[in-house]
Design a protein that fits this description.
single chain, 7-stranded antiparallel beta sheet, about 180 residues
Length: about 180
């Protein structure tokens, strides 16, 4: 009986021991992330230079730099203060997509009329941000660096890796969200 009680005490005391922290097998130096950040900075600088060169070759157009990291110009601008889309509003629009050399990637006819509920559906970042600047009947050409377009992955169809885009957009109308 003494041995059983002693055995139970030993088991109980040994099981109460706190486990030691596991030591890491390897330590990340962060060099991968630093190298990736450097590659992205260089890519952004190259794309910015290409876009600035394109704008300089077309001085007749008055390009505006957005706060979001892309440029745009108006073909048709609505001067009067009218509706711009906000969260949940439905935007009807059409657009075409070209590369920086002007080669058509997707035509307006190919894409057809689009309907987009602001910030509630998937659409590439630059176009979503660009639509927020537009009013009904406006026509705008946007110059998007690749990180505002389809980035590293492309669209898995016609737009490849890290391709800056020229996108011409016409907003047909904006339907405000109906609050229930």
């Amino acid at each position: 009986m003494k041995y059983i009680i002693l055995l139970i005490c030993i088991i109980t005391l040994s099981s109460c021991k706190t486990p030691e922290a596991r030591k890491p097998e390897s330590v990340q130096s962060g060099s991968f992330y630093k190298e990736s950040a450097e590659r992205n900075k260089k890519l952004n600088a190259r794309e910015r230079t290409k876009i600035e060169t394109l704008m300089a070759q077309n001085p007749e157009y008055d390009y505006v730099a957005s706060n979001s990291g892309f440029w745009y110009r108006y073909h048709t601008k609505v001067a009067k203060d009218t509706l711009t889309p906000g969260f949940g509003d439905t935007v009807s629009f059409k657009y075409d997509v070209r590369d920086l050399n002007g080669n058509t990637i997707y035509s307006e006819n190919e894409l057809g009329n689009q309907t987009y509920v602001m910030d509630q559906q998937e659409i590439f970042t630059g176009l979503r941000e660009g639509l927020k600047l537009m009013k009904p009947t406006e026509v705008v050409t946007f110059l998007f660096p690749s990180q505002k377009a389809y980035g590293y992955y492309g669209d898995k169809n016609k737009i490849g890796t890290n391709i800056p885009l020229i996108v011409k957009v016409t907003v047909n109308n904006i339907t405000p969200k109906i609050n229930n």
